[in-house]
Design goal:
6 helices, alpha+beta, four-stranded antiparallel β-sheet, single chain, 162 residues
Length: 162
């Protein structure tokens, strides 16, 4: 029987193995197994479109909740593993270390539990914030610092031709 890939294991188990591997040189995890796909951001326009799609979804199931996940994590490997985990769970990257999600409450609770477990797996000064946000507050969000036309993305403008 072959070894399981790290991507098949629960996130807390991957972090535990990563911690063990850093202490025992015979068990080093190859850096390419945790780096690469999933660690880079899409273009700003694509991220804003995804964000607006989440905010304006009128057919949301009642057991869903919207929330942000924000983190400040020192280790590149841990940060990459967490970003891949969040994307795999259905979260949408807004910025490098900020994700938004509109997922069932059970998934929210599982993500929260997994991130708590990860935080306790190794010595760190990291912080992870999981913040539920009511839909009406998200709709009043303002993006500052980039030339993004939210009205066009939200299809709120009307054009009249005569």
């Amino acid at each position: 029987m072959g070894r399981r890939k790290y991507t098949d294991l629960p996130l807390p188990e991957v972090i535990r193995r990563l911690k063990d591997a850093t202490m025992d040189t015979s068990k080093r995890i190859r850096s390419e197994s945790v780096r690469g796909v999933g660690d880079e951001c899409e273009s700003l326009e694509v991220r804003v479109r995804n964000l607006m799609g989440i905010i304006n979804d009128k057919e949301r199931p009642k057991d869903y909740m919207q929330f942000f996940i924000m983190y400040d994590i020192e280790s590149d490997k841990v940060r990459t593993l967490i970003s891949k985990y969040l994307q795999k769970r259905g979260c949408t990257r807004v910025q490098n270390s900020i994700f938004i999600a509109d997922l069932p409450v059970k998934v929210y609770e599982q993500i929260q539990q997994d991130l708590k477990e990860v935080q306790g797996c190794y010595d760190n000064h990291d912080s992870i914030l999981v913040v539920p946000v009511p839909a009406e507050h998200l709709r009043s969000m303002c993006i500052i610092g980039r030339d993004i036309d939210l009205d066009t993305i939200m299809k709120a403008k009307s054009t009249l031709f005569f």
